[in-house]
């Protein structure tokens, strides 16, 4: 998992530290004197307060690329001066000489832990990293070449926005770079943007926010309008931390924050996950082993529906995260719906099963009161469903199967959820999931609470754990509506047919996964082992199917209900 340290308050200040000459430097954030060599060793992060220093293109490339692998593209392009702006040509010429860089962006290709990628680095020293013709053109050419050569693109953004000295020509670079990225995306290729301090204006409103995966450095300021402009417009002081990377993560705008120490490793891992061709020998289930297990389970005790309801709700029952950790490897979590928030009630990301990349999504309850507040007791908000859909679309783009873990008392019923379209968000998932062209498997691991559960359960197959439930509404709710008496919930549970056994009989689900009793942290290894074997069997069966066939099979599955 990506490391994600707590941000110190110094990261959130607007100060812009520079690294002066000499053996010692002073951190502008905490005021401490720092030994320069130690700062360098610490990836140009203040070792006293954690403040990230802005770094040069050369240092960035050295930090991320394999030694000697980077080859620069399109250097020395002729600049445009459409406004005949006074001293513009002289100014850019002197910056070029002073910093030894070609323009505000350097583009080229190289390898990261051996993985080939097109990498572009913006440099804030060159007219605030503003995007004029050359920046737009170099990025566009790099992306076009990446499309031709089927390479992933990584852009390190750092920019004050469009370049005023070039007027409307500069504005057009936003559309030009975005259009090139659209073609790159349509070709099924990966684009990762890494937002560094500061990324604002026309760059934020174009290539910075278009990554399949958007990462940011801790404390980086990222926004469309700069803080000063906002303060002048609204005539109010902005709160501390506004528009910083941590704020963006909370507001669902980026996938994660990555520390410099982890950056190279993370990028390499992500590229590999997207390059990986499914190994043929993978995902071959051990048929005998697995069928024996399912068979064993048939001689089991008689358990009442109400008892199943209690077990499905048990506090110590394994949740989505625990199954993900137990069944898959190298899980990388992604956050946010890219619009409003990151909903803790839904978690998701990429992981491997037998070296095959899969997208995993799950509803997640908390184990403690504090965690339950973050996760809203596993009741997703519209932004949670929108996050899940975003990840499913991403899975489709990269031909990854999708495994969903369903565990919710229901979608969140609150004013805010209604304001943001809870009904629309659920409906959209049903609509879009119906014709996804990758295999979709949904497993009800705890409570399958009504529409809020179904929004992750439009699968080619739907399975239930032996002690999970899947319901139109809670037995308490059913009793209170039908008999005006919530205390008759146990009676309702029997009549509603909410257990895995009932639903398999009704043809609502395909499979029941047996559970070692009780289902808790002690027994998860045993339970997950059976589940893993069954998932392997599912993928073995569904991965070879044609894309259209998968959608038709899913359509027919629900059409027959
Ligand atoms: Zn400091």
Uncertain residue ranges:
1-10
Shape: elongated
Derived from helix and strand composition plus strand pairing, the structural class reads alpha/beta
Number of helices: 22
Structural overview:
There is one protein chain. By secondary structure, the protein is α/β, with parallel strands linked by helices. 40% of the residues lie in helices and 18% in strands. The chain is built from 22 helices and 18 strands. The strands form three sheets. Strands 3, 4, 5, 6, 7, 8, 9 and 10 form an eight-stranded mixed beta sheet that branches. α4 runs parallel beside α5, α12 packs across α21 and α18 packs across α19. Zinc ion (ZN) binds next to loops. The site of zinc ion has 9 residues, from loops.
Lay out the secondary structure:
Elements: E1 24-26, E2 33-35, H1 36-41, H2 57-64, E3 71-73, H3 88-99, E4 105-112, E5 115-122, H4 133-148, E6 153-159, H5 167-186, E7 191-200, H6 201-204, E8 213-216, E9 222-223, H7 227-234, H8 245-250, E10 256-257, H9 260-275, H10 287-296, H11 305-313, H12 320-327, E11 329-334, E12 346-353, E13 356-363, H13 369-374, H14 382-397, E14 402-408, H15 415-419, H16 422-433, E15 440-449, H17 450-454, E16 461-465, E17 469-471, H18 475-483, H19 489-496, H20 500-505, E18 511-513, H21 524-542, H22 547-559
Parallel strand pairs: 5-6, 6-7, 7-8, 7-9, 8-10, 13-14, 14-15, 15-16, 15-17, 16-18
Antiparallel strand pairs: 1-2, 3-4, 4-5, 11-12, 12-13
Bound molecules: zinc ion.
């Amino acid at each position: 998992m990506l490391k994600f340290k707590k941000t110190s308050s110094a990261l959130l200040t607007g100060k812009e530290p520079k690294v002066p000459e000499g053996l010692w430097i002073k951190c502008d954030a905490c005021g401490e004197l720092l030994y320069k060599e130690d700062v360098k060793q610490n990836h140009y992060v203040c070792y006293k307060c954690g403040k990230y220093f802005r770094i040069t293109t050369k240092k960035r490339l050295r930090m991320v690329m394999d030694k000697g692998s980077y080859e620069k593209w399109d250097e020395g392009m002729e600049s445009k001066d459409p406004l005949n702006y006074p001293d513009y040509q002289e100014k850019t010429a002197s910056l070029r000489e002073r910093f030894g860089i070609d323009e505000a962006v350097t583009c080229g290709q190289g390898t990261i832990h051996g993985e080939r990628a097109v990498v572009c680095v913006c440099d804030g020293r060159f007219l605030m990293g503003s995007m004029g013709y050359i920046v737009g053109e170099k990025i566009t050419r790099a992306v076009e070449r990446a499309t031709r050569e089927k390479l992933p693109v990584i852009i390190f953004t750092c920019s004050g926005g469009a370049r005023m000295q070039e007027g409307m020509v500069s504005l057009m670079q936003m559309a030009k770079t975005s259009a090139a990225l659209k073609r790159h995306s349509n070709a099924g290729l990966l684009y990762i943007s890494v937002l560094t301090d500061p990324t604002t204006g026309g760059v934020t409103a174009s290539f910075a926010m278009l990554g399949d995966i958007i990462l940011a450095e801790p404390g980086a300021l990222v926004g469309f309008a700069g803080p000063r402009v906002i303060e002048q417009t609204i005539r109010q002081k902005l709160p501390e931390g506004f528009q910083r990377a941590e704020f963006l993560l909370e507001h669902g705008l980026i996938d994660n924050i990555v520390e410099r120490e982890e950056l190279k490793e993370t990028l390499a891992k992500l590229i590999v996950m997207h390059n990986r061709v499914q190994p043929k020998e993978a995902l071959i289930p051990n048929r005998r082993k697995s069928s024996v297990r399912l068979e064993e389970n048939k001689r089991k005790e008689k358990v009442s529906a109400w008892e199943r309801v209690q077990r499905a709700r048990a506090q110590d029952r394994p949740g989505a995260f625990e199954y993900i950790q137990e069944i898959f490897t190298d899980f990388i979590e992604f956050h946010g719906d890219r619009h409003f928030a990151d909903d803790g009630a839904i978690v998701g990301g990429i992981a491997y099963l037998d070296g095959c990349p899969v997208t995993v999504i799950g509803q997640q309850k908390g184990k403690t009161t504090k965690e339950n507040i973050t996760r809203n007791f596993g009741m997703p908000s519209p932004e949670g469903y929108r996050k899940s859909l975003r990840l499913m679309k991403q899975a489709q783009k990269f031909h990854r199967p999708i495994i969903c873990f369903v565990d919710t008392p229901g979608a969140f019923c609150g004013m805010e959820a209604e304001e943001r379209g809870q009904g629309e968000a659920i409906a959209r998932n049903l609509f879009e999931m119906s014709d996804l062209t990758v295999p979709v498997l949904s497993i009800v691991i705890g409570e399958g609470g009504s529409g809020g559960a179904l929004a992750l359960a439009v699968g080619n197959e739907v399975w239930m754990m032996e002690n999970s439930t899947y319901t139109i509404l809670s037995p308490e709710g059913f009793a209170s509506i039908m008999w005006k008496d919530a205390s008759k919930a146990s009676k309702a549970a029997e009549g509603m047919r909410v257990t895995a056994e009932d639903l398999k009989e009704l043809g609502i689900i395909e499979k029941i996964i047996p559970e070692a009793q009780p289902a808790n942290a002690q027994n998860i290894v045993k339970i997950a082992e059976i589940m893993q074997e069954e998932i392997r069997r599912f993928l073995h069966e569904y991965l070879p199917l044609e894309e259209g066939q998968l959608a038709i099979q899913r359509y027919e599955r629900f059409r027959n209900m």
